[in-house]
Please model this.
Amino acid sequence: MWLTNRVGIVVACVLVAFPGAQLVAGDYVGRTEMQSVIESAVRQGVDRRWAEDVLMAAERKQSILDAISRPAEKTKPWHEYRQIFITDQRIDGGVVFAQQYADTLAEVSMRTGVPAAVIVAIIGVETYYGRITGRYRVVDALATLAFDYPKRSPFFTRELEHFLVLAFESGKDPLSLQGSYAGAMGWGQFMPSSYRAYARDFDGDAIADIWANPHDAIYSVANYFTAHGWESGAPVVVRAHGDGAAAALFDGGLKPRLTVGELAKRGIAPTKATDITLKATPLKLDGSDAAEYWLGLPNFYVITRYNHSAMYALSVWQLSQAIDSALSEY
Model:
């Protein structure tokens, strides 16, 4: 039996039963940290017994701890990292995806101002257009990192709390939802907190289904961008000359702080006409033959809110441009 709660989200009446899943004692039974997660979820309306059953089934995965210690953004130089995503196969896949969901992409782009090709590129980079959405149970990923990865335990503990709430409210089986080694879910790889804040229902069925509904996934990705300040029609990134720039100029983080004009005076100037009043982030990346210099503008910074890596953001942008170019040939 199922009931609908006051905000129209389906929740289970039988709170301790998870269809298709067998509850077994996991690796975190008796951990004091687990109890604090349960208490936080209960304060947000989650049934205590339900939360206890979910976390009691969580399993520690050493492969997750191994994977998070060597992300590609930190182990590969730019010219190698780029080759993961800017491939003929991924460009062609983006064209097919864009054509298949052309109507949805057009409407979402009109509503939000986010270019269709950027939305497609995000989904292409994150999950190869929905083909690779993760092989770990989300509860295992988040519990492993919350309880056995001290370096980022506070972050993943909060994400585990968010996961319990979203699974309880949505009626999703928390022991069958799968995602990345970091607990990211669905076509757009949303963390649980991002799902709760930014996921949106496109087709009007009252559920933002980023796991099996590409229309909802498209709208959710675009909404994430607008919520983080995407400016419709504004430039994203520009190639630059930077041989004369001091090394310290590139250590200021991802958020734009100086204007294009100020950066030009300090030795890193755009290679084409650019509004000198725009703020920009100077970037120096390892190219295959020599250093590459770029100026990341405010929209570029928005892309880095999806993944806090300049190489990630530049890959997304370059893939979007390649997809756009390929689409123009049809």
